[in-house]
Amino acid sequence: MSTAAAIRFAPGVALTLWLAAFAGAPAHAQTAGAGGACAPRAFEGRGYVVCLAPARSDLRLFFAGRDGEPFGTFSAVRDALAQNGERLVFAMNAGMYNPDFAPSGLYVEAGVQRKAANQKSGAGNFHMKPNGVFWIAPNGERGVTETGRYLARKMQVAYATQSGPMLVIGGELHPRIREDGTSRKIRNGVGACAGGATAFAISNEPVTFHEFAVLFRDGLNCPDALYLDGSISAIYAPGIGRHDRWRPMGPIVGWVEKGG
């Protein structure tokens, strides 16, 4: 979907109202099939797809199937869920990973820690500290928390994925994200937003870190947001006819509903 075809919003006003209205809509209206979960959005001249998961939606992380092999694709996750009578509403790649597709940092799935947090220093976006963790508690509560704070809280979670850098921290942009940055990539991320909603966004065109972070802070009203990846970023959103198949992936995050 081109930027021209997307609905345009004034910064921090109408787009936030759309998110608030969606979060308060009846559950039956909050599915991709009902045309609600994901939609193309234009913000400050750039095109994005934004997917909103209200507080009561069933978000999960996926890495490997019953055979222990990485799912690698949205189709594999979708088909595995269908065998259990469940439907994948939307999905995105959910954090950086190694050449074997294993997560680069902390990864928890169905209450089991598959990999410990990575607090090492190094090159690349993952190590652009502070990085952070997107987590889902057993009661369904979700959040985005800087890695050090997450570990200090000794949280018990059902799902967690570590990535980096943080885009927005307590309403402020990451200190190393500069307005004059020149690196442009297709990027995706997740934000913990006003009203308990979780917003996932992917750019439809190459954007800078600053442009992407401002989308979460000012456009989506997310006080905390985390970068998931760039270049390999992909989305599965059947409600708007989108199914990216660029290349195999590591961890995947998705909204699940009953009914295959």
Model description:
This protein is an alpha+beta fold and 260 residues long. The chain has one domain (7-199, 212-240). 14% of the residues lie in helices and 34% in strands. It has helices at residues 14-23, 74-82, 147-152, 209-219; strands at 7-8, 38-43, 46-53, 58-62, 86-93, 107-109, 112-115, 132-136, 142-146, 159-163, 166-169, 172-173, 187-192, 198-203, 224-230, 235-237, 242-243, 252-258. The longest helix is centred in the last third of the chain and has 11 residues, at 209-219. The chain starts with 6 loop residues before the first strand and ends with a strand.
The domain count comes to 1
Radius of gyration equals 17 Å
Quantity of strands, as a count = 18
Oligomer: single chain
Summary of the model, kept short:
This protein is an alpha+beta fold. The protein is 14% helix and 34% strand.
Summarize the helices and strands and which ones pair or pack.
Layout: E1 7-8, H1 14-23, E2 38-43, E3 46-53, E4 58-62, H2 74-82, E5 86-93, E6 107-109, E7 112-115, E8 132-136, E9 142-146, H3 147-152, E10 159-163, E11 166-169, E12 172-173, E13 187-192, E14 198-203, H4 209-219, E15 224-230, E16 235-237, E17 242-243, E18 252-258
Parallel strand pairs: 1-2
Antiparallel strand pairs: 2-3, 3-14, 4-18, 5-16, 5-18, 6-7, 6-10, 8-9, 8-10, 11-12, 11-15, 13-14, 13-15, 16-17
